[in-house]
Amino acid sequence: MTSLNPLAAHVCKEDNFSMAKKIEHLEVSKRKLLGHGLESCSINELQQIENQLERSLSKIRAQKNQLYKEQIERLKEECGMVPLLAWSEQAVVVNNSTTQTMEVETELFIGLPERSK
After folding, report:
1. How far apart are the first and last CA of the chain?
2. Which of 109, 112, 88, 91 shows the shortest CA–CA distance to 100?
3. Secondary structure of 19-41 in the HEC alphabet?
4. pTM to 2 decimals?
5. Would you place residue 102 in the very low, low, confident or very high pLDDT band (cuts 50, 70, 90)?
6. Domain spans of the chain, in order of start
7. Confidence of residue 78 (pLDDT cuts 50, 70, 90)
8. Cα separations (Å) of 24 from 44, 45, 109?
């Protein structure tokens, strides 16, 4: 087993101390983001924590919405449904660089059903 020279040992001690300080700082930050230990925070620091949480929540919601969209599209494909965008694109006919829209007639009725007498 080789021993470290005194200078290398000192550098390792400083690195360990520095890492311990960084870990402690990260743990304090984590506790604050979880809402613990906020008593010592200034209004400015609380505002910064709130802003960070709002940005994080926004990213989380965007990712969740993306996953929902992907899941909906996958379910539509499994059920044999044509995505709405693809269906509406089929209704547009391009003829000599002019776009014409075809009308599609359906039996769709919006309103209250008629009552039988």
Report:
1. 101
2. 91
3. HHHHHHHHHHHHHHHCCCCCCCC
4. 0.53
5. low
6. 7-40, 42-84
7. confident
8. 21, 18, 65
